[in-house]
Amino acid sequence: MPEVIFNGPEGRLEGRYQQGKDPNAPIAIVLHPHPQFGGTMNNQIVYNLFYMFAQRGFSVLRFNSRGVGRSQGLFDHGIGELSDAAAALDWLQSLNRESRGCWIAGFSFGAWIGMQLLMRRPEVEGFISVSPPENLYDFSFLAPCPSSGLIIHGDKDRVAPPQSVQKLVDKLKTQKGITIEQQQVEGANHFYEGKIDELTERCADYLDRRRAEIAAGKGR
After folding, report:
1. Is residue 50 within 8 Å of residue 125, measured between CB atoms?
2. Tell me, what CATH number does 133's domain have?
3. How far apart are the first and last CA of the chain?
4. What is the pLDDT of residues 13-66, one digit of tens each?
5. Contact 152, 131 (CB under 8 A)
6. Which of 97, 114, 123, 214 is deepest in the core (most CB within 10 A)?
7. By residue range, what is the domain housing residue 16?
8. Closest C-alpha among 48, 57, 56, 46 to residue 85
């Protein structure tokens, strides 16, 4: 998969990019967990989600946010990282002007960033949020949530406890016009040790079902 460098708000950002074969291929961006706790684009969950999209013909990008790896800049507590994600999506869209369909996926801190990006980009048709840490970050911006998506988490997660994720899901499920699917992976901690394959399979199943529904004209 090609290594790419593109311009972000604070300088260059490095990523890995897989181009779909179809000129109308949908696009996806995958966002990594907290950089101050070792989160990078090479995180195993980010890596697996990246290939999940690639295997389905997407043009997909994962990248290091500012200050991570060879990406320039300094950690900015989410504000700058959201700007980086927006720049990454702009770059991805500039290469895929005929694309039909746009998805955002993120893990932990990346799920928080991804859901903020979702609010700014009405073209996004779906999202996958893995273990969104509702207890650590403010998710009140999701009012209303603009598209349907999957929220998946582990029942043994101590970083993003199930009860806090449930609060987020319950809030989003009150909205009309979208469908939030919630799944819980039994025995999984925050890092899905021993459960990454199951997590990936569940996300892939959701993506396949949603895309089939969209293709059948059943909405977002």
Report:
1. no
2. 3.40.50.1820
3. 30
4. 999 999 999 999 999 999 999 999 999 999 999 999 999 999 999 999 999 999
5. yes
6. 114
7. 3-216
8. 46
